[in-house]
Design brief:
five-stranded parallel sheet; globular; 143 residues; Rossmann fold; 24% strand; single chain; 6 helices
Length: 143
C-alpha cells in the first residue's frame, strides 16, 4: 500500500519516537516500503538570536543530531527493513517536515503527538497539528 514512509522524531523527547518508530517500522516491513526518518534541528528564528551563538553552533548541533539519529535507528529498529534512510535538517519543524514529504516521495507520514505544557502549546501550537492540516498525504499520529 505505501512505498515511502516519513517518520519524524524529536531526538530530545523519547515520547516522539518510542511508540511511533515501531509502528512506522511495522508498516514499512509489511508494505516493503522505504522508511525515511527525519530529525529537525530548529533554526535560530532570527539573525539577532543567531548572533548570540558561536559561529559553528548550528553545524555542531546538526552533527550531534546525525550521530544520535544513527544510534537510535541502530538500537531501536525491531526487524530488518527494505531500506532505512536517515535525514537531519535545520529549520522550522513543520516546514521541514512538509518539504521532506516531497523530497522523499513519502505517501505516509508517521509522527507522535505528545502533550507539551499548556504555555508552550498556546505559544507555538502542536507540530503534529500543523503537519496534519497542511500535509498533501496521509498522516498517522501515534499517541
Amino acid at each position: 500500500m505505501y512505498k515511502s514512509i516519513l517518520l519524524t522524531v524529536d531526538l530530545e523527547h523519547e515520547a516522539s519516537w518510542k511508540k511511533a518508530l515501531p509502528e512506522a517500522a511495522r508498516i514499512a516491513r509489511d508494505d516493503e516500503a522505504v522508511l525515511h526518518v527525519l530529525a529537525v534541528v530548529p533554526d535560530f528564528g532570527s539573525p539577532l538570536v543567531a548572533a548570540d551563538f558561536p559561529p559553528d553552533f548550528q553545524k555542531k548541533a546538526v552533527d550531534r543530531a546525525r550521530k544520535r539519529l544513527e544510534a537510535l535507528l541502530a538500537g531501536e529498529i525491531p526487524w530488518p527493513l527494505k531500506a532505512i534512510r536517515s535525514h537531519v535538517a535545520v529549520g522550522r519543524v513543520h516546514e521541514v517536515i512538509l518539504e521532506h514529504i516531497g523530497s522523499t516521495g513519502a505517501d505516509l507520514v508517521v509522527m507522535a503527538s505528545h502533550a507539551p505544557d499548556r504555555v508552550r502549546e498556546f505559544l507555538v501550537g502542536s507540530q503534529a497539528d500543523r503537519v496534519v492540516r497542511r500535509s498533501p498525504v496521509s498522516v498517522l499520529v501515534v499517541r
